[in-house]
């Protein structure tokens, strides 16, 4: 149980509602910032403007999945008010206060380090990334179906990257009957791709591997689907880029060539916000519980 803990939850999307639900169930005292348009009331939770928050009492701060905007703006679908988190806010929190976000950026890193507070990026954790790959794959399948007039079955599908998302994507498209090729650079990845029954290729040979591609799914957060690669693809190829913004595709060149290329960020929050929120809520409740036990042990 998280009784007696003061947790501030800032904005976000529908995933945050599951986080609120989970922490409220655990008995935490919740301060909700950026939720003034949310009708639902949660036991033990009060909705405040950022100016009304007593930061000196907070044990935990939970930010939206994307952390903040480049200048500290907190995105929220539950309010039209502008919310900006600053280093001054964080400096007012107690020394043990810990900040959680899905991912981070240079602004957030800067203000957290200026305030000397701990910060956990949830999507850095393998468990979160692997669970999260499930709704990501379902969203990818949805996008491919919506943007093609052929079946996934029998399609020539190229997956780039064999990390947590790439592996799940390759497995699901294979199960749907696609001819799946996976591009990676590490020998152990190429070996595992082969062991799992997909066709492996080294990324050095990407240009020659895409000449008969129907669907190309990129998971590599690096410019990999370059103009040279796109120029070798058939014009009916669909590129779905799952890598975090700005993706790994030369979108301008794809458009010039008449190839449909879509950057598809945040699919879990779009196709399965409840599941995606439960994944975050479960891990947050565990991490905050551990943080609380460690602190009690030190006292
Ligand atoms: P991951 O486990 O770190 O996998 C990344 C893959 O990219 C690995 O195979 C890695 O290979 C490869 N890679 C990285 N840099 C490379 C480079 N310079 N050249 C060649 N290969 C490179 O990450 P993940 O969890 O699968 O996530 C992949 C991306 O999808 C991330 O950008 C993540 O933010 C994003 N994502 C998007 C959604 C969505 O809804 N669109 C959902 C979840 C995640 P090595 O091991 O050889 O480095």
TrEMBL record:
Entry-linked Pfam families: AlaDh_PNT_C, DpaA_N
Sequence ranges assigned to domain Alanine dehydrogenase/pyridine nucleotide transhydrogenase NAD(H)-binding in this UniProt record: 148-289
Dipicolinate synthase subunit A N-terminal domain: residues covered: 6-116
InterPro entries: AlaDH/PNT_NAD(H)-bd, Dipicolinic_acid_synth_A, DpaA_N, NAD(P)-bd_dom_sf
Stated name of the protein: Dipicolinate synthase subunit A
């Amino acid at each position: 149980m998280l009784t007696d803990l003061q947790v501030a939850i800032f904005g976000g999307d529908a995933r945050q509602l599951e986080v609120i639900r989970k922490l409220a169930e655990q008995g935490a005292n919740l301060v909700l910032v950026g939720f003034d348009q949310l009708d639902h009331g949660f036991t033990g939770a009060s909705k405040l403007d950022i100016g009304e928050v007593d930061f000196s009492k907070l044990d935990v701060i939970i930010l939206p999945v994307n952390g903040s905007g480049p200048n500290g703006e907190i995105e929220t679908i539950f309010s039209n008010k502008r919310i900006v988190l600053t280093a001054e806010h964080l400096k007012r929190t107690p020394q043990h206060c810990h900040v959680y976000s899905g991912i981070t950026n240079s602004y957030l890193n800067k203000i957290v380090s200026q305030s000397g507070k701990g910060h956990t990026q949830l999507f850095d954790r393998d468990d979160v990334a692997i669970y999260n790959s499930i709704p990501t794959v379902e969203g990818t399948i949805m996008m491919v179906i919506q943007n093609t007039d052929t079946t996934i079955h029998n399609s020539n599908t190229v997956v780039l990257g064999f990390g947590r998302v790439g592996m799940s994507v390759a497995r699901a498209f294979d199960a749907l009957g696609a001819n799946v090729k996976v591009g990676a650079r590490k020998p152990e990845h190429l070996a595992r791709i082969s062991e799992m029954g997909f066709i492996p290729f080294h990324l050095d040979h990407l240009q020659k591997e895409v000449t008969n591609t129907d669907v190309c799914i990129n998971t590599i957060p690096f410019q990999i689907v370059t103009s040279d690669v796109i120029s070798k693809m058939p014009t009916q190829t669909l590129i779905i880029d799952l890598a975090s913004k700005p993706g790994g595709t030369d979108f301008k060149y794809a458009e010039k060539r008449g190839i449909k290329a879509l950057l598809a960020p945040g699919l879990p929050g779009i196709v399965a916000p409840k599941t995606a929120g439960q994944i975050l809520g479960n891990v947050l409740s565990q991490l905050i519980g551990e943080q609380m036990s460690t602190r009690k042990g030190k006292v």
